[in-house]
């Protein structure tokens, strides 16, 4: 399955969750519901995937991405009224740190579902 197919399916799953629940829940609720929909869509995924962050070759800590889908796409979820630059920066950092080509930032907190596709600038 190519990246466009994967991201299309992920977005469809997210739309179903948002259409069903609306906005106003905590992020963890959307994360659990999205896991159900990803499974129903036949997508392989892992939740809360921990990644070591290095600075100049030195381990400086770990971060967790909400989802890694089909071992190809990082998915970061939010449940905020509006996405801000800090959310986009966090998602970009995950895509680079995990060395993936692409990531999705999905916000369930707005009245309409918001999503951004993020590309790894180091891979272009």
What does the model show?
With 124 residues, the chain is of the alpha+beta class. The chain has a single domain (3-119), classed as Lambda Exonuclease, Chain A (Alpha-Beta Complex), CATH 3.90.320. It is built from three helices and five strands; from the N terminus they run ααβββαββ. It has helices spanning 3-21, 27-40, 85-97; strands at 45-55, 58-69, 73-78, 102-107, 114-119. Strands 1-2-3-4-5 form a five-stranded mixed beta sheet, with helices on both faces. α1 crosses α2. The longest helix has 19 residues, at 3-21. The protein is globular, with a radius of gyration of 14 Å. It starts with a helix and ends in a 5-residue tail after the last strand.
Beta-sheet strand percentage? 25-35%
**Unreliable parts:** none
> What is the gyration radius calculated from CA atoms?
14 Å
CATH topological fold name = Lambda Exonuclease, Chain A
Strand order of the largest sheet: 1-2-3-4-5
Q: How many beta-strand elements?
A: 5
* The top level CATH class name: Alpha Beta
Please tell me what the overall shape is: globular
Rounded mean pLDDT is 93
Number of domains: 1
Report how far the terminal alpha carbons are from each other.
Answer: 21 Å
Share of helical residues: 25-40%
Count every helix, treating DSSP H or I runs of 4 or more residues as helices: 3
The secondary structure category is: alpha+beta
């Amino acid at each position: 399955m190519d990246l466009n197919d994967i991201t299309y399916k992920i977005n469809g799953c997210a739309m179903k969750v948002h259409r069903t629940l609306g906005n106003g829940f905590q992020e963890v609720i959307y994360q659990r519901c999205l896991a159900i929909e990803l499974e129903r869509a036949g997508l392989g995924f892992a939740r809360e995937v921990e990644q070591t962050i290095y600075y100049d070759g030195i381990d400086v800590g770990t971060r967790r991405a909400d989802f890694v889908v089909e071992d190809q796409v990082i998915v970061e979820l939010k449940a905020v009224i509006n996405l801000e630059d800090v959310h986009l920066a966090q998602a970009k950092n995950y895509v680079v740190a995990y060395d993936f080509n692409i990531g999705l930032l999905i916000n369930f907190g707005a009245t309409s579902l918001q999503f951004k596709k993020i590309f790894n600038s180091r891979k272009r």
